[in-house]
Fold these 2 entries.
Entry 1:
Amino acid sequence: MAACVSSSMVTLTGGVSIPSPNSLKTKGLGFSSPFLNSFNPIPLNFCVLNNPSAASSRSKISRRLFRVQSTVLKENEEKVVVEESFDPKSFREKEGEGTFGEPPVGGDDSPSSGFEQRIIKFEQSINMLLTDSVVKILDTFYHDRNYARFFVLETVARVPYFAFMSVLHMYETFGWWRRADYLKVHFAESWNEMHHLLIMEELGGNAWWVDRFLAQHIATFYYFMTVFMYALSPRMAYHFSECVESHAFETYDKFIKDEGDELKKLPAPTVAVKYYTSGDMYLFDEFQTSRPPNSRRPKIKNLYDVFLNIRDDEAEHCKTMKACQTHGNLRSPHSYAAEALEDDDSGCVLPQADCEGIVDCIKKSVADPPANKK
């Protein structure tokens, strides 16, 4: 991975290629001009400054600075500290539409598009069945033990991101794949879920041995299932994670509405205060791909604020998982400056391999081995 250094920062550009806006077929998230006018863009690195053709694109950066490729969810619930809530049911795909609620690529009469839509519907049906089954189990065991339920939920919620990174590292080992943004965002997501877990442990959610046993064994099974699912169909694996995160959002949202008055009387756990209000916030910004960095800075005064922010974290995970269901759509919120390097041939950007699922990776490696690539 190549490193391009400026006077004030280090920008890692190895293996990351940003698709041209004209080639994107999915909805992007734009930000209003008042925000862009008030934002001072970071300095371009020396790779851009030393290349006239790349430097000429500097004037275009402000217009495209935060075109993070993610879908925007409907926001129609109660007011919260950070932003309005949203309806998790807005994730459900409409029949006859594409992955992001758009007409299928190729038109309604395309045989391949119709076949793909049937596959998508089949994948999502399996995911919803699996999610509903797990929810019923949790409802049976934890209908009156909220913190223990949250501990199990957060132990399991971290697993998909480990699984995604495991498969992507395997693809990198074989030279099939290299997209740094995916690894960065998935690690940031696992880091966020880990702090949710630490909060639940501080609240006593792991006090019973049976809860720890159940959570650990479900997580182990879930890891291998997700690895297999992700290798077979990344789209299906991302949708399953979206279903899990959507359930987490609904669970926390109901808990806040039912117990809000009592939660406001209780102090916030120390780990929550440290995570949300102090230290390096890079990883906190990294997993929220639908918003620009530094745009969300929580205030933690009591336990109510803690659960409010955990709920909003789950909403951000849902948005990211939905964006991931279109291959190549995920982009790190910190990678906007890399757009200036699209046409840069100075040698700072390494060529990258890319494939979707193990079948596609093997097929592409046979058709065009890495040794033959220039």
Note: Residues 288 and 339 are 19 Å apart (CA to CA).
Entry 2:
Amino acid sequence: MATLSDRVFFFFCFLSLLACAAINGQLSPTFYGSTCPNLQSIVRSAMTQAVNKEPRMGASILRLFFHDCFVNGCDGSILLDDTSSFTGEKSAGPNANSARGFEVIDTIKSNVEAACKATVSCADILALAARDGVVLLGGPTWTVQLGRRDATTASQSAANSNLPGPGSSLSQLVSSFAAKGLSARDMTALSGAHTIGQARCTSFRSHIYNDANVNASFAALRKQNCPSSGGDSNLAPLDLQTPTTFDNKYYQNLMVRKGLLHSDQELFNGGSQDSLVRQYSTNAAVFNGDFTAAMVKMGNISPLTGTKGQIRLNCRKAN
């Protein structure tokens, strides 16, 4: 039987659920409910301006969130500039010359600081901005869990080793996501983020010139803007059909061998994910449901909570 002190403890835990959750390392969708009640509208407003100005930005912010979470957890470390004591993630192979949208996060952070000083982490701002970018491009919404704190350091080596590359095989993709607690189904659903955004020639050149499992006319089209040498930064849409609309066309492309990256086409190449790609290609609701569930799971990778980390005042540097 619970003692009086036990009952008092649980009563106060119930009243201050958010504080108890933070201490125990749990995230909550209402974490800033009293400390920054207008947070979500502030983030949405700035993201609306950014995506209206450049639709690609929705994909860029989503990619930043993915690349943040896969390197030492969702801790805002990808946003840190290099310092004299560490070389950060921005210059790592998967991010150099391709990670973008940092100035958008800076703008949102500035707006949030003006409303709720030293309260909201850069990691949480990035999580909200990634969701809003998807919604603004016509995709599904989900409830973002909040309460992350920010890292004070970053690791270029971890970014180089933990992020799956565009040349990854199916088995490499499955294992890299499994290492983060994400299933093969989660991996295939999250890959659907490639229904928006663009990729650099250097990331798909090998696929269109060397792989057999690529539609010939599609390869010829992409070669027009991606020569066998040079033009590394020339861009092509990841989704041939609707590059600025979040939908399930990405999976339809894979079924006719029009995946832009080698790693994309690996999802439909006679392997374990073929049937799921078929399902997503014809059932957007199933894809949307799996994608949003996987985004919540990814957002829960090793967050810093409670007294760990800090609330950075400038997303580019530790306090």
Note: The longest strand covers residues 198-200.
